[in-house]
Amino acid sequence: MDNFINFLNAKILPVANKVGTQRHMTAIRKGVISTLPLTIVGSFFTLINNPPIQAWADALLPYKEILDVPFRYTVGILALYATFGIASSLAESYKLDKLSNGVLAVLAFFVSTAAPIRVTEDVKGVIAAGRYIDIANLSASSLFASIICGLLSVEIFRFFKEKNITIKMPQGVPPEVSNSFVALIPAAFILIFFWFIRYVLNFNISTFLSMILMPLKGILVGNSLFGGLLTIFLITGFWTLGIHGAAIMAPITRPFWEMSIAQNMSEFAGGTSAHQLSTIFTEQFLQWFLWIGGAGGTLALVTLFMFSKSAYLKDLGKLAILPGLFNINEPIIFGAPIVMNPILGIPFIVAPLVTGTLSYFMTIWGVVPMMMARLPFTVPSPLGAFSSTNWSIAAMILVFVNYLIDLAIYYPFFKLFEKQ
Asked: Which end of the chain is more exposed for a tag (fewer CB within 10 A), N or C?
């Protein structure tokens, strides 16, 4: 272990430091971390609104919609807040006006990502005629777009400022007024530039990524170890780039995941043993065996943070442990952060690949059954695995084994990150 840590110190740390201190990478990291209070508060509302106890869920059912509102306006539009934070951080590094650049980046993000929807007629009791924005376009699934808009809008502003293509006000004008006029010409260019890309060229980042992934459809929908590991790799890989992995993969995987668990449930109800169902790599397989604490198996990292010598990591671990126990890991993904962090990104990808391989073989060898039920994702992993495999104690034990494996994989990278 010491040799491996020394290797990381000698080979990986210098590269990670160079990447981590680069101006744009720093802006991304600071901008994403600025959303941490929102993700923590929003995560708790998610926890309240998705209780593992059915009686509690039934009691809250009349209030489900209003309890969902805090989540929608925190984590649900996370990319919007991140856009402002990223642009403000980059502008600060250039000694530009943070407020103007943050506002212009939000403008660019809205124009390029959140196309307005026009409803021409009232639908009684549902919606009135008018123009609307789907806030799903502003969620973490659009975080990559927010990064592009945040960085590019500041660079455009900086170009105009350095070339003196701005409106200058006389001396004595209040700074907030002067800054507004300085931003006038860059604002017009940014608006037209992103509008042209989105509506004239009809280019959408999310759609573009989906098109890239479509050729993988034939590979990912299978029941093979390779297909399952590839899905795991893509989901965690996208997360490390700041893109909501499950959301990006959803157009391909979601329909097949839904059909797979429905078929397993139907077969089980018809008398088929849980060991002989059709599909291994259901969404529930990933949820209970791999995503212990959330995507990437981050509960292990949260545990390590709680005992860290770093005050920040220790406090973050204490804040993230309760959401993590219920598989909500936005606080750790965006708070550490894992996003754009080579040191923590490696185990975030590797750990689920290892535990996924072990869980696959435990299933085909008949040690643990396949998934025959679906539960809310906020159920703690041991209970979720226990319930979803027809009350298999072996499945519950496998969760604890995988957690220990996650701890072992995360540990050397955690020590390196702590030292940094």
From this structure: N
Distance from C-alpha of 165 to C-alpha of 47, rounded to nearest angstrom: 50
Cα–Cα distance between 152 and 235 in angstroms, integer? 26
- Read off φ and ψ for residue 199, nearest 5 degrees: -105, -30
Residues 237, 46, 117, 83: what is their CA dihedral angle, to the nearest 10 degrees?
-50
Give 242-277 pLDDT, tens digit per residue: 666 666 665 566 657 766 776 787 677 667 888 888
**Cα–Cα distance measured from residue 172 to residue 404, given in angstroms and rounded to the nearest whole number:** 64
Among 227-241, 253-267, 394-408, name the most confident range: 394-408
Per DSSP, the three-state class of 14 is helix
Contacts of 41 (CB under 8 A, 6+ apart): 70, 74
Which two structure tokens, joined as six digits, stand for 54? 């059915």
Question: How long a stretch of residues is the chain?
Answer: 420
Question: Which pTM value belongs to this model?
Answer: 0.63
Cβ-Cβ contacts under 8 Å for 316 (sequence gap 6 or more) = 305, 331, 332, 335, 336
pLDDT of residue 33: 76
CA distance 308 to 68: 34
For residue 130, list its beta bridge partners. 119
Q: Which helix (H) or strand (E) holds 86?
A: helix 78-93
State whether residue 201 is helix, strand or coil: coil
Residue 120 backbone zone (phi > 0: left; psi -120 to 50: alpha; other: beta): alpha
Assess whether the previous peptide bond of 175 is cis (omega < 30° from 0): no
SS3 call for 407:
helix
Residue whose C-alpha is closest to residue 220's, from 279, 166, 180: 279
Categorise residue 173: left if φ over 0, alpha if ψ from -120 to 50, beta otherwise: beta
